[in-house]
Amino acid sequence: MIKPFNNHKPIFLQVREQIEDQILNNQLKEDDQAPSTNQLVNVYKINHVTVSKGITQLVDEGILYKKRGVGMFVTEGAKRKLIQKRKKAFVDDYVVRLIQEANKLEISESEIISLIKHVKRK
């Protein structure tokens, strides 16, 4: 699924995150061929260097691997790596700030849990 880019973060990161999302959503599985740089350039109408930067980061992190002359493929264990990375980011970006704000507002742990359960049911 193609999502439009936003102005909140660099485009190469958004390209990267869209490929990561495809892996996390099982649209791309281990050893599946990832979209080529040229395909992404043509679909998004963005610079080749921009796409390459996002792809290169995924290769450097062991999420994708190159088959010379064939393309990029999803590595074995890529989904597991991404889940671990995103869980850590989730804790750092959301949970830590949630707890800090809850402490300022004197919201107890049990109240936080109740609020989360309430919101999750909606």
Automatic annotation (TrEMBL):
- Alphabetical list of InterPro entries matching this protein: Tscrpt_reg_HTH_GntR, WH-like_DNA-bd_sf, WH_DNA-bd_sf
Gene Ontology terms for molecular function: DNA binding; DNA-binding transcription factor activity
Residue ranges of domain HTH gntR-type in the record: 9-77
Q: Name one Pfam family in it.
A: GntR
Gene3D superfamilies from the entry? Winged helix-like DNA-binding domain superfamily/Winged helix DNA-binding domain (1.10.10.10)
Q: Does the keyword rRNA-binding apply?
A: no
Please, which domain of life does this record's source organism belong to?
A: Bacteria
Name the record gives this protein: DNA-binding transcriptional regulator YhcF, GntR family
- Organism of origin: Lentibacillus halodurans
